[in-house]
Amino acid sequence: MSKSEKKVTSKDEDKKKSDEKAIGDAIIAAANARREELAKEALATRSNKTLPKEVKEKPKEEKPKESKPKEEKPKESKPKEEKPKESKPKEEKPKATPPSKTDTEEESLPEFEKSFVDKISSQFTDDVEVGYIKENRTRVNVKKEKILEVAQFIKDNLPFDHAESVTGVDFPEDKEIGVVYHLGSYTDPTYSKQVLALATRVPREENPNPGNDSTKLPSLRDMFYSVEFHEREIFEMLGVYFESHPDNRRLLLPEDWADLPPLRKDFRNKGR
Amino acid sequence: MLKELVTPQNANVFVGKLGDILYKAVDQPLGMAINWGRMWSLWPVHIETACCSVEFGAASSPRYDVERFGIIEAFGSLRQCDLVVVQGTITRKMAPRLRLVYDQMPEPKYVIAMGACAITGGLYFDSYNVLPGIDGILPVDVYVPGCPPRPETLIQGCMLLQEKIKRMKAR
Amino acid sequence: MAEQVIPTKKMPPGLQVENVDDRIMTLNVGPQHPGSGHMRIIVKIDGDYIVDADPDPGYVHRGEEKMAESRNYITNIPHLERPVIHDSCNILYPYVLGVEDLVGIEVPERAKYVRVIAAELNRCIYIQYWLAIYGIFLGHSTMFMWPAGDRELLIDLMEKITGARVTHAYFIPGGVRNDVPANFEDVCLRQVNYFEKRIKEYADIFYDNPILKARTEDTGVLSREDAIRLGTTGSVLRASGVDYDLRIKEPYDVYDELDVHTNVLKSGDSYARSKIPWLDMLESCNIIRQALEKMPKSGSIRTKLKPNPKGREDEVYRRVESGRGSAGCHIISRGKPEPYRLKLSVSSFRNLIALPYLLKGEKLGNMPAVYWSLNYWPVEADR
């Protein structure tokens, strides 16, 4: 999408260079004003540390994007006011942002991807929320209690037959640990491009005691056998205990590892 | 005359002195011979610890052919070996095993630290599972820098080790 | 008196009846063994037969995923290619594609072709090394010397392009680091043609060798259903009859403009698994020739990045077909110069799960042939 825009701009550059420059200056001025405003706000509410950083980043990103469509000043200044507020939660709930982007900038969601995600979300209305739907990549966020049922549903009704990777992510601010299963399909050629991310969250404990605390998740090994070693890795790296997994043992770390699980955010590499 | 000198009382002392004189007289040429033998038949242990083993393999490939310098291709049984080439990163899990391998080898034995990771930790200086160099667990004879070192560098390191053995006192 | 001192052995004549558990012996293979090191397999054997196998990786676990969280997108490049230094272009490929998605830059057309050529050359370099070690595993000395020698040809070629023998760090977000040298096309074409001629000779000495066939055929058979169920990838999957190659199924860069064929064998034994990479090399030679023909003769090779690029708040999962199979990279970005979380989903780690499955019921003497035929590189699996 940006490719085509670039080509257009490169052709018409000579004609509208001056216009563009004027608009660009105006945008920079507007952005600076907005930045000062936000900086004042940030000074007033110092307790929230995430605000000042975004203030610096946001206007910079918007400059190149919006200079291309060549619109007028007032229209552009509006999204600027909204965007920092949107990203304030800064949370891994991309539910709202990616679809809205695709709606406004491009044609609507890719149909094929939407069709099978709808199947899942219509079956489990309350427990499943759609993370994002992009071309070839989809994500559904599932509640921890329902993960087995959803996985069984995907295995039975959709041609996803193996797990490619299992990622564990630590979210210390939310006191949660995310586990993302990337599922792929070998058997159905129409699904060979698709990667479905099945994501869930488990509670995180300040003082982890892997295996004996609340950081537990049912294992998907019965549905997708290929997660066996991935789940062992996550157990040692993040301390998520997989119930009904036959051997929750160490895999990569040394036998005498007695520190925190290393991929938690409160575990720091030396000097970092 | 000899009979007067050597009495049953001082025979042991005399033999001991004679041994010392003989040792001093023969040590120099014999030691050189021993060292010469050791120098041209270095047998490395086949222990591969990290990614430098790729270049170690290339060093014994037809183009570089480390065998012509008397470094014989990596060998399985560590009871017959006298050289450890530490091929790269030593993690905390590998370190006790490396020491175990080293302890099982017969004397004399030599160590080459190959690659930046084996020398200082290299690229992984801040990793939680990597030792900052192998000096803490093995006595290193020659350091071969590089990430990974080219086979030529490894061969040069081996030749430096040979030079060192040549000048060593044979035990 | 004497009768009491001598212990009386109650050995029944003929077969001795004993508890089955007593006959089973645990054997440690590795981490020092005369094949590729950095890996331990704990096997339980009953006589000559393996009844249980438990792989114990992690001897080269260097915590790359944790390190990536404290380095920015550019300084991550050198240490992320270290897991497979002899396939460094391909292991870096998904990361670079992912960062390009996050930062939002386009790659020039010429750079895409240069990338494809470099990736295919590197695939050949990787497979040649793998084949050489397979020769050592099977006690076939010539099969170590030939690939290890021929491999140097392509290493020379890569050295001309990138300046380094194995650790290229050649792919960067936005293109490639530097342009190919002058008259590269001619040199590359000549080398690749010679290389192809040379690797065809391997059939005579290795693949048609009755000893190799006797050792590898019908050992470690992985059926099609199990290959899918275990989630194996790359040559292991294709040797079991599943036609799945990401260069065709999910073409990245310019693979969709090139004529790529997959090699699929149906038998699923060690012989098929050892033959697929060799067929892949022949296919790579074809791809390189096509790419050299179609490559734009001049043009930019890199889109300039900002000095400290920040990814947008998003997550990407990109995957490519590396020398061993699918290599995936999952990056979660939070608008900072460093990734919030970076996960490498590498094919060696995915194929490892097939090892205990295949070894059960095999003879101990078949273990090297099965183990190395899985196209496994321990450093990559440990990360």
What does this protein look like?
The complex is a heterotrimer of chains A (272), B (171) and C (383). In chain A, helix 8 links the parallel strand 6 (216-218) and strand 7. Chain A is globular, with a radius of gyration of 23 Å. In chain A, strands 1-2-5-4-3 form a five-stranded mixed sheet. A two-stranded parallel sheet of chain A has the order 6-7. With 272 residues, chain A is an alpha/beta fold. Chain A is built from eight helices and seven strands. Chain B has a domain at 53-167: Rossmann fold, CATH 3.40.50.12280. In chain B, 42% of the residues lie in helices and 8% in strands. In chain B, helix 2 (11-39) packs antiparallel against helix 6 and helix 3 (53-59) packs across helix 6 (151-167). Chain B starts with a helix and ends with a helix. The mean pLDDT of chain B is 83. In chain C, the strands form three sheets. In chain C, strands 1-2-3 form a three-stranded antiparallel sheet. Chain C has a three-stranded antiparallel sheet with strand order 6-7-8. Chain C has a two-stranded antiparallel sheet with strand order 4-5. Chain C has a single domain (72-350), classed as Cytochrome-c3 Hydrogenase, chain B. In chain C, a hairpin with a 2-residue loop joins strand 4 and strand 5. The radius of gyration of chain C is 24 Å and the shape is globular. Classes of the chains: A alpha/beta (272), B mainly alpha (171), C alpha+beta (383). Chains in contact: A-B, A-C, B-C. The interface between A and B is small, with 11 and 7 residues.
Low-confidence stretches of chain C: none
Q: What is the helix content of chain A?
A: 40-55%
Distance between the termini of chain A: 38 Å
**Cα shape of chain C:** globular
The CATH architecture assignment of the largest domain in chain A turns out to be 2-Layer Sandwich
| Biggest sheet statistics of chain C | 3 strands, antiparallel
Distance between the termini of chain C: 66 Å
Order of helices and strands of chain C: HHEEEHHHHHEEHHHHHHHEEEHHHH
CATH class of chain C: Mainly Alpha
The arrangement of helices and strands of chain A along the chain is: HHHHHHEEHEEEEHE
Proportion of residues in extended strands of chain A: 15-25%
Structural class of chain A: alpha/beta
Strand order of the largest sheet of chain A: 1-2-5-4-3
Principal-axes geometry of chain A comes out as globular
Q: Looking at CATH, which topology of chain C would you report?
A: Cytochrome-c3 Hydrogenase, chain B
Overall helicity of chain C: 40-55%
Strand content of chain C: 5-15%
Total domain units of chain C: 1
Provide mean pLDDT of chain A, rounded.
70
Give the full name of the CATH homologous superfamily of chain C. Cytochrome-c3 Hydrogenase, chain B
Structural class of chain C: alpha+beta
